[in-house]
Design a protein that fits this description.
Blueprint: H1 9-33, H2 38-47, E1 52-53, H3 54-60, H4 65-77, E2 81-85, E3 93-97, H5 99-110, H6 113-120, H7 124-139
Antiparallel strand pairs: 1-3, 2-3
Amino acid sequence: MTEAPRVDTAQLMELLSVSLGVYYGEFTVAAASENLTASQGKALAVLRRGPAPMRALAETMTCDASNITGIVDRLEKRGLARREAGTSDRRVKNVILTPEGERVADAIRAKMRTTQAGLESLDARDRDQLRVLLERVFLTKPAT
C-alpha cells in the first residue's frame, strides 16, 4: 500500500489563501447586496456573536480605532447597531446589534450559497473534523 504524499505548510497556506479568497469574495458581494461595505458586513458578523466594546471590535477586525468609529457610525445611521456606555466604565462604548442588524447579518450569510453548499456537502464526521482543525489552527493560543 502506498502512502499518500505529505502536504507541506506552504501548500496548505496556498489552499487556505484560495479558500479565503472565495469566501471573502462571496461575502463582499453578499454585503454589497445589503448596501454595505465588506468592513461593515464583517462588523455585523462579529457583533452577531454578541456585543463588543469598540476597542475589542477594532482588534477583532484588525483595524484602527478611528476606522471602527466610522464603520460603527455608518451602521448606527442605518439602524443596524447602537452604542451603549459600559456598565463598569462609562467611557467604554459597547456596540450592540439591533434586531435589523441581526436580520441583515443573517441575510448576508444566507446569500453565501457557494460557501454553504461546500460546507453542506460534508458529512457530519467531516464537519466535526473541520471544526476541530479550524479551532486548533486559529483559536488555540500557542504555548509561550
